[in-house]
Amino acid sequence: MIQKTIIERLKVLADAAKYDASCASSGTNKRDSRGGKGIGSTEGMGICHAYAPDGRCISLLKLLLTNHCIFDCHYCVNRKSSNVERARFTPQEVADLTISFYKRNYIEGLFLSSGIIRNSDHTMEQLVETARILREEHDFRGYIHLKTIPEADAEIVRRAGLYADRVSINVELPTVAGLVRLAPDKNAQTIDGAMGTMNDAITEARDAKKRFRHAPRYAPAGQSTQMIVGADGASDADIVNRASALYGQHRLRRVYYSAFSPIPDASAVLPLRRPPLIREHRLYQSDWLMRFYGYSPGEVAQAAGADGMLPLDIDPKLAWALKFRESFPVDVNRAPKEALLRVPGLGTRGVGQILSARRHRTLRLDDIAKLTVSVAKLRPFIVTADWRPVTLTDRADLKALVAPDAGRQLDLFAA
């Protein structure tokens, strides 16, 4: 068999990693090599935080150690029964590629995952060894995100946090039934246990850092996970409740959503078509509502229809407001922060500016217009010194008045 070149393998394994969405590089410690020691930085000149239009980070070297896999998850293009081109890197090769790309200013760090080869322990050891080479042999101070394997020995997984800025364990699917049906080699209890173990290790390390100055840093950017949307029959309400439970139980930094994409030689149990990409976008908006706007999972679920699905034509914050019109209008000069955050069209920054400005003067509609893209769509939900909506909030055609133009992509952070 002819050995593939580095470039040929890079093409295969970078393409194989494209389905993983959880590669953002935020939240880590600030490190650089301006003192003349080490290589790389997590901030500063030469570091480009670039994101694709759908929100995926593209400034990391993102690849798999190998796309060989002994598991047979139906939704995975790299499953053992899939007829795809296979390739494999050694830990040393990945480390050399990372350093080479970094010196050329192509990347800011490494996102590394892998198919399962031989067994979970062996694969996890290879991933950790890659990070060890970068940190200890090259003194690499850039960003490293390792995708860990829940079936691997807990001590090996724990070592990943000593070298990586962020670690992640994919829950794969939002329901246990979906996991049993589509990923028979994986176990929901094992995944939850591994995430709990990692959370305990991160907590212990942070406590040690408070007591001992020279305690080693441990996964400073925390852990995250990813769920596939649309491969099984889970509703948006199911997904939102699962995400909320993960945030609460394991203190995750992020839950990422990846819309299921049909793959070559797909299993007959999978849908023939991918879900609308806007569904993934709505789930990210609902995630934002829970994390930054004070909504409970139940309230987000209330924005969904009877089938548990969030509307695709309007964002979940607006959907909730239209269902619970008795909560509006909100007086911007008197209402507490919690009520202002419920107003469609007002973001966290806008609410902060309102709270600051109203300490010094009474706000009028023109003042609010400076803080939002469309004050006309905000008017049914607010009261100012010179504006009161009267019957506008109760109009039967209110949705048509405030809904965004058809076909226009909404800003993820505008909710």
Automatic annotation (TrEMBL):
Keyword Iron-sulfur in annotation: yes
Lipid biosynthesis in keyword set: no
Gene Ontology molecular-function annotations: catalytic activity; iron-sulfur cluster binding; metal ion binding
Pfam families recorded: Fer4_12
InterPro entries xref list: Aldolase_TIM, DNA_rSAM_put, Elp3/MiaA/NifB-like_rSAM, Endo/Exo/Phosphatase_dom_1, rSAM, rSAM_sf, RuvA_2-like
Cofactor: [4Fe-4S] cluster
Boundaries of every Elp3/MiaA/NifB-like radical SAM core domain copy: 59-286
Keywords, in A-Z order: Iron, Iron-sulfur, Metal-binding, S-adenosyl-L-methionine
Domain of life: Bacteria
Gene3D superfamilies on file: Aldolase class I
NCBIfam families registered for this protein in UniProt: rSAM_link_UDG
Protein name per Swiss-Prot or TrEMBL: Putative DNA modification/repair radical SAM protein
